[in-house]
Amino acid sequence: MTARAFITGIGGQDGTYLAERLLADGLEVHALVLAADGHPAHCPEAVVLHRGDLADVDGTRRLLLEVAPSEVYNLAAISSVAQSWDEPDLTARVNGQAAVALMESARQVGGVRFVQASSAEIFGEPAESPQTEATAVRPVNPYGAAKAYAHLTAGVLRQRDEHVSSVVLYNHESPRRPARFVTRKITSTVAAIARGDADRLALGNLEARRDWGWAPDYVDAMVRAARAEVPGDYVVATGVAHSVRELVAAAFSAAGIDDWEPLVHQDPAFFRPADPTELVGDATRAREVLGWEPTVGFEEIVRRMVEADLTLPAG
Ligand code: GDP
Predict the structure, then answer these.
(1) For atom 3 of ligand 1, which residue has the closest CA?
(2) Is the CB of residue 308 less than 8 Å from the CB of residue 173?
(3) HEC letters along 204-262
(4) Which range is the signal sequence, renumbered to this chain (predicted)?
């Protein structure tokens, strides 16, 4: 029988790249989709879609027992820090409790390799930089707190020999990133300016620094974590931080626009009440244990995103 994988969060950037990767590896790929969402963009036809809600713990458990996968990737989440402030209880249910329920469902299936998509947000405003797997987990928003609960429980379940890994993902981008994230907001607006469809780019904090990587590389880290002999926590990051300002400069440069300063304007509406000034990860463990390394650098990520946006139809 062909090995099966089960993905939650197939509608997101990572879910579609992961599905492509697992299909290429020869696995049969099953995925959970919310009934309201329809067939996700970029989702390969070969993926077997199951309608359901991760927060419906009993329904999801029945489904997992029926599919009986050998690899489970939990990517589904309330993905916005802003929404987590508006709906902290929903965030706790989906990002925290439902993740742990899925880990327990996987245990009931038996022999499953489980990968939890965690986030640099579990570190909050870290006292040390770069962060490692040993950095104190001290979230500063409901999103980070719920992700922290799932991350910590993964570690607890490993103590009774469950193959549950938690990958602590830093910002990772691609042309499939929605425009609510700053990278895609910048590349899509710069492309619109280059086409003459927009005249300026309004942003918040230009000095915030993030560790931006290439999404398919981060999916590769997830697959390596699932297939490693021993489960663990892994920081997945490039180790290099850039400012939002550098991102803007790289995007305009990729679009062939040199004199960009007058086109960018700072709008208080896009500043956040609490915003880590710098998040940068040290992926030494992922490199040493999983043989993982990022393959696409910052400038190239931005160039690929701008090029993709330049070829999109206007609108
Ligand atoms: P996050 O790190 O997961 O919150 O990813 P984002 O891409 O949403 O934000 C990255 C950084 O860009 C944060 O420090 C934001 O404060 C900063 N930023 C500056 N201007 C903007 C903006 O207009 N939109 C967004 N989304 N972020 C912005």
Answers:
(1) 171
(2) no
(3) CCCCCEECCEEHHHHHHHHHHHHHCCCCCEEEECCCCCEEHHHHHHHHHHHCCCCCCHH
(4) none
Q: Architecture of domain 175-210+241-279+296-310 in CATH?
A: Alpha-Beta Complex (3.90)
Across the range 149-159, mean pLDDT stands at 98
pTM, two decimals, is: 0.95
Q: Is 70 in the pocket of ligand 1 (CB under 6 A)?
A: no
4-8 and 264-266: which strand pairing?
A: unpaired
- β-pair partners for 118: 168
- 50's tokens: 């199951």
Q: Is the pLDDT of residue 315 over 60?
A: no
148 membership: H or E segment, kind and range: helix 142-158
* Residue type (1 letter), 54: L
Averaged pLDDT, 268-296? 93
Token couple for 87:
């709906």
Class of domain 4-172+214-236: alpha beta
- What does the pLDDT read at residue 59? 97
Q: Among the residues of 8-119, which ranges form H helices?
A: 13-24, 57-67, 81-86, 88-91, 98-109
Residue from 83, 182, 271 whose mutation best tests the ligand 1 pocket (most atoms within 8 A of CB): 182
- 17, 143, 218, 234: the active-site residue: 143
Taking all residues of the chain, what is their mean pLDDT, rounded to a whole number? Answer: 95
Domain ranges of the chain: 4-172+214-236, 175-210+241-279+296-310
Which tokens is 32 given? 């959970």
**Catalytic residue (choose from 17, 73, 105, 121):** 121
Reply yes or no on whether 143 is catalytic. Answer: yes
- Helix, strand, coil share of the chain (percent; to 5): 45, 15, 40
